[in-house]
Amino acid sequence: MIRHSLLALAIAGALSSVSGAVLLFSPPALAASVIEEGRAIALDRRKGNCMSCHIIPGVSSAGNPGPPLIAMKARWPDKAKLRIQIHDARKLNPLSLMPPFGAHEILTEEEIDKVVEFVHSL
């Protein structure tokens, strides 16, 4: 049991420099930090500005053109699909009103990863 835990920690450390790997293998404190960073990006009016279209728990002055961001783990169990939705929603729905945050380089790939972690935590 201890050997497996040490192996998991070694793998996490080795992968920490690979984009996205931190989000998959990070300890709880680091995961919470990434979620908070994602929240900050999502609520930044110059970046994600998610609350202009979505109701987000704990955030006032929300818009309603998009669906509320609640029960996201149940609605988007596959984070990869959620990432596609945030990166370029047109890939899943060509008529989507959602801005293509990745395709139009509104957010960096790293910022999108963090927003995915935040949104998935809701």
Structure overview:
The chain is mainly alpha-helical and 122 residues long. It has one domain: Cytochrome Bc1 Complex, Chain D, domain 2. The chain is 51% helix and 0% strand. The chain has helices spanning 2-15, 21-25, 28-43, 72-75, 79-88, 109-121. Helix 3 (28-43) packs across helix 6 (109-121) and helix 5 packs across helix 6 (109-121). The longest helix has 16 residues, at 28-43. The radius of gyration is 16 Å and the shape is globular. It starts with a helix and ends with a helix. 21% of the residues are buried. The model is unreliable at 1-23 (pLDDT under 50).
Brief synopsis:
This protein has 122 residues and is mainly α. It has helices at residues 2-15, 21-25, 28-43, 72-75, 79-88, 109-121.
Distance between the termini: 32 Å
Helix-strand pattern: HHHHHH
Mean pLDDT, to the nearest integer, reads 83
Radius of gyration computed on alpha carbons:
16 Å
CATH-defined architecture: Orthogonal Bundle
CATH superfamily: Cytochrome c-like domain
Fraction of residues in β-strands: under 5%
What overall form do the CA principal axes indicate? globular
- What is the helical fraction, as a range of percent? 40-55%
**Tally of individual helices:** 6
Unreliable stretches, pLDDT < 50, 5 or more residues?
A: 1-23
Structural class: mainly alpha
Count the beta strands. Answer: 0
Query: Could you say how many structural domains there are in total?
Result: 1
Q: Remind me, CATH topology? A: Cytochrome Bc1 Complex, Chain D, domain 2
For the largest beta-sheet, the strand count, sense and barrel status come to: none
* CATH class category label: Mainly Alpha
